[in-house]
């Protein structure tokens, strides 16, 4: 089954007013496809963050396919 790294990102301002994007959490998920992996990661994120919805703690989601052995793509 394919594996994906799902990252939850949030845009924040620092003390000088400059915006930066930080990774709130990342999950490695095995799923049939990218959409299923995102759905599973959303569930994990909301539980880990004790939030009712993922978008309360993150602005966007990025996905990355992983190699079958769990490492980086070749």
Question: How is the topology of this model organized?
Answer:
Blueprint (H helix, E strand, L loop, with lengths): L2 E11 L5 E12 L3 H15 L11 E7 L8
Antiparallel strand pairs: 1-2, 1-3
Instruction: State the end-to-end distance.
Output: 17 Å
In spatial order, strands of the major sheet run 2-1-3
The whole-number mean of residue pLDDT values reads 91
The rounded Rg comes to 14 Å
Counted up, domains total 1
Structural class given helices, strands, pairing?
A: alpha+beta
Strand % is: 35-45%
Number of strands: 3
Our count of helices gives: 1
The residue ranges in which pLDDT falls below 50 over 5 or more consecutive positions are none
Q: Which oligomeric form is depicted? A: single chain
Largest sheet composition: 3 strands, antiparallel
| Proportion of helical residues | 10-25%
What is the succession of H and E elements? EEHE
What would you call the shape? globular
């Amino acid at each position: 089954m394919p594996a994906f790294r799902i990252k939850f990102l949030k845009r924040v301002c620092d003390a000088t007013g400059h915006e930066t994007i930080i990774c709130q959490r990342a999950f490695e998920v095995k799923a049939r496809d990218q959409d299923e992996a995102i759905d599973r990661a959303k569930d994990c994120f909301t539980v880990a963050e004790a939030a009712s919805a993922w978008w309360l703690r993150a602005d966007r989601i990025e996905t990355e396919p992983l190699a079958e052995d769990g490492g980086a793509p070749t």
